[in-house]
Every structure is written in C-alpha cells, then in structure tokens.
Amino acid sequence: MTPKDKTKKKSHKIGRGSQLLCCTALLSCFMSISAAAQTTVHILDVGQGLSVLVESQGHTMLYDGGDSDRSSYTVSYLQQHAVSSLDYVVASHYDADHLNGIVGALNVFPAQTVWGPDYTADTRIYQSFQSILAAKALTCTQPAVGSQYQLGDAQIQILAPSGSDYNKPNDYSIALRIQDGNTSFLLTGDAEQESEAEMLSSGLPLASTVYVAGHHGSSTSSSREFVEAVRPEYAVISCGAGNPYGNPHKETLETLQAVDASIFRTDELGAIVASTDGTAITWTWEKEPPVLSEAHDTAAASSDVSLSTVYWTPKGKSYHSTRNCATLKRSKTILEGSLSDALSANKKDPCDVCVK
Q1: 3-state SS string over 265-276?
Q2: Neighbours of 126 (CB within 10 A)
Q3: Among the four residues 51, 62, 184, 256, which has the most C-beta atoms within 10 Å?
Q4: Distance between CA atoms of 76 and 62, rounded to whole angstroms?
Q5: Beta bridge partners of 42
Q6: So what's the pLDDT on residue 356?
Q7: Alpha carbon 352 to chain centroid distance?
Q8: Residue 18 clears pLDDT 90, i.e. is over it
Q9: Which DSSP helix (H) or strand (E) runs through 13?
Q10: What percentage of the chain carries pLDDT values higher than 70?
C-alpha cells in the first residue's frame, strides 16, 4: 500500500511570519489543493535522499529521485499523480541517494531533456545512468548558469554549478530557482558552502519563498550568508527518520529560524506539497505533525543532533558516521561522541566517504 493509500492530506495557506498554531483549526478537516493552482512542487518522502516533482500546466520536471530503496516509490508517486512523460529530468549530482530514482524514472517515463553536472563518478549507479541514457537515445547536458527555461507557467533559472574543479562532488550540484508570479522555489541539491558562495557572488536572484534546504539540512550547506540572501518564508528539509548523519543539524535549524522561516520536514510529515497560483501557497502533507502547540519550526528544533554518534581521530580533520569507514581502517585511535563533541574538537569536515 502506498503512502497515498494510507493517509489523507491536510492543507494550509500560511503567510510570512505566521505560525502553524493559527492553522490548527484546519488540521481537524480535510482539504484539497486549490483548484486555481498553476504550479505544484512535491517534495517526495524518499527517506535520506531527495526527490522533487514540479508540475505546471501539464508540464513536469523531476529533480532527483532518491536512493535505490525508494526508486519504486518515486515511480509509483509519479504514476499516481498522472505523470505520463517528463519535460525535464535533473540529476543534481551523482550520489546514489539522488540518482537511483532518476534511473528508475527514465526506465518508465519518456523524457525530453536530461540535465546533469559535467563530471563522472566511478560507481555502479552512475554506470546505470549512462546505460539508460544510451538505451533511450538521450543526452545529458549541464545547463549554463544564468540560463532560463519555461515549464508551463513557471520559469526556471540555473544558479549553479559555476565551477569545474571542486574538491567535493556535492558542489557540482545543479541549483535552480523556479518562479511563478510572486512565488519562487530554490533547489540546491547537496551544494555546500563553496558553491553557495559562488551563487552569492553571481548576482543572480536568490531570494525565494520556499527553500528546499541543501544537503538534507546538513551544516555543510545553508550557510548563514546564503540563507540570509535567500530569506525564505518556508524551508523544506528532505531527510530520513533516525538517519545516521544527524540531519537536520542543529546549526541549520537555528540559521533557518533566524530568518523566521517555517520549517517542514519529510521525516516528520511524509511527502510535502506546495501549490501556488502565483500569489499564495497552499501546503499539504501526508502525516500528522508531531507537535501542534508551537510553530512547526520550533518543533523541528527539538530534534537533538547531539544524540547521533560520530567518530574521529586525534589528528584528523573530519568526522565519520561509522567506525567502519574505509578511511579509518589504518587508524589506531578512534574517538567517538556526539556531533557537538566532534565540532568542539575542531573536526568540522564531514567525511566524503561515509557522510552524505
């Protein structure tokens, strides 16, 4: 049984600075997305991954697809929402938790345009991606920063990547901004602070109504300067319940709260849908929020990142999500503690191998 079969969706219209407390009356009744909606953005519940479906006047874009354990769900979700083909398919970058569902979708749905960053990965899923492109006679290209594209009533502008020699694959993530009327949505994949700094210096518009937080709410993304430039009314975090990385990190939640963003999390609410008529946004989600007495962003902040255990070495600069990380095999001394402990010990870099 799919999540749609199991749950009914609840709908809310919320303005800047409003708290979800004022919407508790709406929680007692079931409502549907406004019929006047022109553009709908679905943040799918793919656990510790990312998948976003954008629909506008019969045109569709799939941005990432989640990991292998959610690939079938992603395909099923699209089918349940009457998607028969895709105008754009975007692989933000080639990590498995973003790319697996893209391969699954390309196997099922005809696609017109496929975007992906200009680098290669020595992984099985990347090879599968290349194989399905060849089988479907599709070409994957990296769109130029600043270029604009139409999707129904929505306009898409490419913001990143602007570099070509990043140390971290996450910074190759294709970031884009979707605008419909006075509402806008920002998707940055797993782009970290190097790419965010480049976006800040690009001069391109970043301010957005909705920000799908980078890198699942990790502190490696959503820098204070970047979030202040975006100044979202709403932030959506796609992460898995009880994930081993401690996402979303406390630092990210505090940064988002500092700009008064209302925070929605897929680990708490399931699939989250934002539908706009170009003026207002109607929100729907699948699950009952865990806390209704305060604004949802305050409830989200109660997630204590110090409960997750990470590992590091006395001389290393990185922290690790597992003691069995390949980069720790030769280490004689491995320390463990909370993420806060690791950061206090100046282990501020997440391991590129085991921390996504």
Answers
A1: EHHHHCCEEEEE
A2: 19
A3: 51
A4: 13
A5: 53, 273
A6: 61
A7: 18
A8: no
A9: strand 10-13
A10: 82
Q: Distance between CA atoms of 144 and 92, rounded to whole angstroms?
A: 14
User: CA dihedral defined by 257, 240, 96, 62, rounded to 10 degrees?
Assistant: -70
Count of CB atoms within 10 A of residue 235's CB?
A: 29
Cis omega (within 30 of 0) on the bond before 289?
no
Among the listed residues 34, 25, 29, the one whose alpha carbon sits nearest the alpha carbon of residue 8: 29
d(Cα 184, Cα 15) in Å, to the nearest integer?
Answer: 14
| CA distances (Å), origin 244, targets 2, 129, 269, 349 | 25, 27, 19, 16
**Cβ atoms < 10 Å from Cβ of 106:** 24
Residues 6+ positions from 295 with CB-CB distance below 8 Å = 19, 20, 21, 262
Give Cα 299 to chain centroid, integer Å.
20
Question: Are 176 and 189 spatial neighbours (Cβ–Cβ below 8 Å)?
Answer: no
Please choose, from the candidates 314, 309, 322, the residue with its C-alpha nearest in 3D space to the C-alpha of residue 345. 314
Are 297 and 22 in contact by the 8 Å Cβ rule? The answer is no
**229, HSE (Cβ side, Cα atoms, 13 Å):** 17
Tokens of 260: 């008064």
Give me the pLDDT at residue 228, please: 98
Q: Residue 326: what residue type?
A: A
Cα–Cα distances (Å) from 249 to 34, 203, 252, 356, in that order, read: 33, 28, 5, 13
pLDDT at 31 > cutoff 50: no
- Kindly tell me the burial class for residue 144, based on how many C-beta atoms sit within 10 Å of its own C-beta (0-12, 13-18, 19 or more): exposed
Number of neighbouring beta carbons within 10 Å of residue 259? 16
Q: Which residue in this structure is represented by tokens 């992984």?
A: 123
Residues 316/292, Cβ–Cβ less than 8 Å:
no
Residues 6+ apart with CB under 8 A from 23: 12, 14
3-state secondary structure of 116: coil
Place of tokens 């009880």: 242
The residues facing 155 across adjacent strands are 150, 179
Mean pLDDT of 67-72: 96
Token readout for 10 is 């609840």
Residue 300 contacts residue 308 (beta carbons within 8 Å): no
For residue 165, is pLDDT > 50?
A: yes
